[in-house]
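Researcher: Batch entry, complex prediction.
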Amino acid sequence: DIQLTQSPSSMSASLGDRVSLTCQSSQGIGNYLSWYQHKPGKPPKPMIYYATNLADGVPSRFSGSRSGSDYSLTISSLESEDTAIYYCLQYDEYPRTFGGGTKLELK
Amino acid sequence: EVKLVESGGGLVQPGRSLKLSCAASGFSFNDYWMGWVRQAPGKGLEWIGEINQDSSTINYTPSLKDKFTISRDNAQNTLYLQMSKLGSEDTAIYYCARQGYVMDAWGQGASVTVSS
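Model: Structure tokens for the complex:
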């Protein structure tokens, strides 16, 4: 199975900060990576698909990028509503696999 | 409005079976792959599997393939997850999701607790 390693596992940042979360794949998956935001008591919400494409309704302060087997989710200016756990998911091969998640909190 | 509603969760004894349903509305159900994802308490998301539009292709995560069965009824716009030989490790919130470019619509989740 493809392993996705997310870093950091948790972090805190201040309002207005630029925040970058990373997801590293154990093998090549091309751009077949998506990001999800998950808040307590709610279902996950898609944020990014195909590594760099913004999902419907996602604010433009979110962006996705790729460098080799490293994928990043960046928030250009952190807002309070962005606190959540973020997961990456690869959909290049079966079984699909999620990363372990990054918990993002406000400082 | 796209809507997915899971049902069938609850408390079940170890070793028993349980079947979850996911009722879809607001979109053409038979045009989409559908899938299941779960989250155990204090753990991350786990992909369970997915099924294509006419049920001819079903993929599972290997560790659950012998315990879980995904099916669908396009006439009833409903997705199912049949779970057997349940153990405490299967205690989780179970989500159904529509598979487009991304899992773009999710249900609110069904809680399953496996305990004697």
